[in-house]
Structure formats: structure tokens, C-alpha cells
Amino acid sequence: MKESSNKPFQFQKTFEILSFQIDPSGKLRWAALADLLQEVAWKHADSREFGQVLFDKGFMWVLSRFDIQVHAMPSWGETIHIETAGRGINKLFALREFRVTDSSGTVLATAMSAWLLLDIKTKRPQRPSLVLPSELFETEPSDYAPPEKISVPEKGHTGKTFHVNHSDLDMNNHVNNVSYIRWIEDFCLEQGFTFDKISINYLNEALLGENIEILFSLDAQKMLVSGRSGERDVFTSWVEKLNG
Amino acid sequence: MKESSNKPFQFQKTFEILSFQIDPSGKLRWAALADLLQEVAWKHADSREFGQVLFDKGFMWVLSRFDIQVHAMPSWGETIHIETAGRGINKLFALREFRVTDSSGTVLATAMSAWLLLDIKTKRPQRPSLVLPSELFETEPSDYAPPEKISVPEKGHTGKTFHVNHSDLDMNNHVNNVSYIRWIEDFCLEQGFTFDKISINYLNEALLGENIEILFSLDAQKMLVSGRSGERDVFTSWVEKLNG
User: Fold this and answer.
1) Interface predicted TM-score (ipTM) of this complex, two decimals
2) Number of structural domains chain B divides into
3) A68 inside domain
4) Which residue in A135, A178, A228, A238 has the fewest CB atoms around it within 10 Å?
């Protein structure tokens, strides 16, 4: 992931950080940040008719890979700006970048995401260029690389288990992308492992009522955290401390 | 709980409903509504120096009873207004009322809450009149009744279990009041029981790492839902369908 982009962003939204988004250290939680990134992605897509309109036509966007790097988390009551832009198409991935800044313009966080366009009936990936505005998502080979593929560990320590509840379901009746990030965050904080970067690969959807078992292996600066339901790998991720 | 109050409200805040607050039916989740009510309570308290300032002086507000009645939940992208006011003191309870309206002024939800002021060291309740602005919270016997006491069922069916995770902790390192409401909502929706009113009594704090076992008994229109950790009763609640 590039540190920051030179190309202009295409859409932005401003948020006040609210009390329920804050952790005991007084800072925005990772899952709450991911909620806001997702809100901005949706609003951008809807503003140019490649969001809910596509869903109504039988397509859905599935988040496949997501890298989020945080320099500083905002506190309760702070105002932040989240910018986003399409960053071209890479094979079947549509790329979307985010940048989070505080009220003085300081960059708090950056993120890159890779999305697949699925036919809801067949579950087959479709070419994103079919539906995306070409002025927002260049169809030339993109200047931007998608987040990297992360291997699923063969072995690992067994951590805890998270149950998939009704509140994990989003408006399309799928487990929210952010739930997986909340599980990672909850698991890492329970281990006393604080971090600056999450890189997650979404592998298979978690389903309502399932128990997601966490596997992990840790070195000093980096933890490999993956989740599975029975024999099905659900996600895998690198969680890293930087500069430290 | 009165349907709506005749006395003026004292504080208000406006919110846009965001994608991550919505359930698969397209409406605001109960837990997300409770998040917003709590935000407004905190901001009101902080605006008059009976919020975080008191915490720094060794006191804390503990939500003891909370009744929320919903007429209609807003949808994604809607703007809502939440008003709140102190509604006097009843013995050791400080009462706070809420009213939620949409952009045309239609009342979407009403709520009444009863709060105890605890000395953080001794855990003993203090008289709220010691710290509350008397022009906001009348010390005369209040015109308003606190939410009712709910008995803890002796017996009940055992429902599911919820684990208390790090993301349940609020900025004061206590399990967020809203987590209990999320557990109730998750449990009821899993049972296929939709509802218009929640009345909850908070009994003992849930602690990080605990498993909260749900007990319930159901008749057609009303479900008694309580939570316990081992032998400790954590909450008890009535969840009701109205007009139906």
C-alpha cells in the first residue's frame, strides 16, 4: 500500500466521533473506523449509481482484501474527513482507496481495498468495468496494486471463538465486513497486542449462527490471525505494529 | 412511561443514520438507537459539567433502568433529532427523558431512564441533587415516575450465551449499557420475536471475559428476558409488542 496517493480523491464525507465509537483508551476503535470507511464507500457508489442500484439488478460488491494503516486514531468529539476514490481495475478487482484526515488536514489513516463484483444468483465474479464509471475507475492497468494475498496458516495456536449474531448482519443480510475486523481487534486486545496496521483477506462468508474459531501465530511485531468455521477458512490477516 | 412530555426538552442533537446502524430490514437497530440516546445524554451532561467532570472527581453515573418505546425506526440516510431533558430526582434516581423525531417532527421513539450517582471508590450511591444543576433536575418530588422495577424470574428457558468482549467496553472501561440491549435484540430476533418496547433493569455489571447466559419466558405479546453470569443476575427486561 502506498503511503498516500498523488491522485485526487473523488468523494468525501465528514464525521463527528461519537461516544460509542471510542475504546477505553479514549480513541476510535478499529471496527468503528472500518464502519465509517464502509459508509463512505457505499455513499460514493450510490452517488454514481454503482451501489444499491446494482444490488437491485442482481449484482453485489464483495470486499475481498482490505489494508488499513493508522497513524493516529481520533478521540471522542473530534471531526474527521474521509476521502475515497476508485483506483482502477486489476484483473477482477475494483480498487478503492481511502484517506482519513483530521480538521487540520493531518493524515490519520490510509486504506486500500479490492472488491469483486458478483452475480448474486451464480456467485460468479463479473468484470467490474461492465458497471463502473470509467472516469472513476480507469480500465488501463492500474497504477495501484491491490492489497497482497495472505496465506492461510497450516497450523497455529487456537485462540478464542466468536459467535455470529443477528447484529453482525448488514442491510443485505450478509455478515458485515466490519464484524471480522471487530473479531480481530477483540482478539488482539485480549492478547495485549496493540497494532498500527491490519491487512485482511476475506475468504468465505461467515454465516448467522456459526462459531468462528480464531487461529494465530505471533512474533514480536506481527501477528497472523485467521478465522475458520469447521473446515472452512473464513478470513486470514496480518496485524502489525509499525515504527516500534 | 408517559407517551410524550409536556415540559420542554433541554438539549438536542441531530444525526444522520449511517449504513452500519441498519439491520437487514433496512431500519435502525435498537442497539444503534440506544448508542445515539447515550451519546446525547453524555453530551448534555458534559455541556453542563455533570458528565466527564464528575468522573474526574470520583463519581460515575450508572444507568439503572431504561424504557425505550419505538413507534417507527428510521432508515439509512434519514436525519433524526434526539432531544433530552432532566426529569427530576426520585429518591436516589436522577431521571432523564428522551424524544426522537424525524425531519418532519413526527415522534419516532420515546424513552425514560433512571440513573444512580455512585462514588467510584466505595460504590455507594450518592444523592444526585449534590451534583446536578437544580434548574435542569427539580429536587421537588418529580412529576415523572422512574421506569418500573422488573422481577428476576425464578425459572425460565435457557436461551443462548453471549461472551463479553473488549469491544463491549466503553470509554470508562465498563461494559457499555448498549451491549445488554444488543444481547436482548440479538436473542429476540433469533427467536423471531420483533418488538416495540424494551424495559430493562441493570442489576450487576457484566465483566470482560464473562459469559452471560440468557433466560427467557414468552407469551404471545411479551417476553421476559434476563441475563446472568453464574449465580449473579446481570439484567432483567420486558420486551413487548404493542398494538399488535
Assistant:
1) 0.93
2) 2
3) yes
4) A135
